[in-house]
Amino acid sequence: MMSNESSKENVVQYILRTLGLTMSDALCLGDDYNDLGLFQFCGYSVAMGNAIKELQDIANEITETNDNDGVALILERFAGSQKS
């Protein structure tokens, strides 16, 4: 059992607020039903290639599967774009 207010989006929003950022500043990645709320609030959402259809339908982008290093591909691309 857990609180109805417990969710990934609430935790991410709390952390971002602490850092002086908003949800529109966030990149999120996910693959299952518990990520749906997060995808609705993040500034940019990336579904894994093995994600549920509902998540892929609302994602800004779909990457490779977990087994094919989809997270690493996105992080490398976004982190690489931040280098001077």
From TrEMBL:
It comes from the Bacteria. GO terms for molecular function: magnesium ion binding; phosphatase activity. Gene3D superfamilies: HAD superfamily/HAD-like. One of its GO terms (cellular component) is cytosol. InterPro entries: HAD-like_sf, HAD_sf. This is Uncharacterized protein. It comes from Paenibacillus tyrfis.
